[in-house]
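Q: What structure does this chain adopt?
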Amino acid sequence: MKINQQIKKYAIAFGSNLGDRLNNLTTSKALLLNNCTNPSECIFSSVYETTPVNCTKSSGAFLNAVAEMNFDKTPEEVLKLCISIESTLGRPETREKNSPRYIDLDILYADNIKIKSKDLTIPHPRISCRRFVLEPLASIKPNFILPDKTKSIIHLLRNLDSTEPPLKIVHTKW
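A:
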């Protein structure tokens, strides 16, 4: 599905559980900021250490964060940018599902639009069932309501039925 309008605000989830995890997040952040229309308006959660969810046995703990960033690009162009950054930081194009990774960048939402195509679903289909996404997102956009929901992000977090252990903030500035 091709969107004609230029989306302004995107939420991007960052995750890393290989190598220098914090450096992987900060490098990805810098590369995304280089493509932003107004970097000073971007907002970032703290960085959380999280237990792997539905990952391979060899997966170590993740560092996760969320950002809301401004792009004058279509969702497809932002997806290509994210994939390019993942590749630059060593994520192989073909890999086992949920295998350890240097960086994982996911588009959580793009303003208030909905997209469902072979390569892209927005809002991300698993936002509301993942503490490692909801908690950082709630820290920066607690009252945001996803286009496919009727409850705010903070409400989704407070009512989350999850076996994930509590998240631990490890960096407030990155």
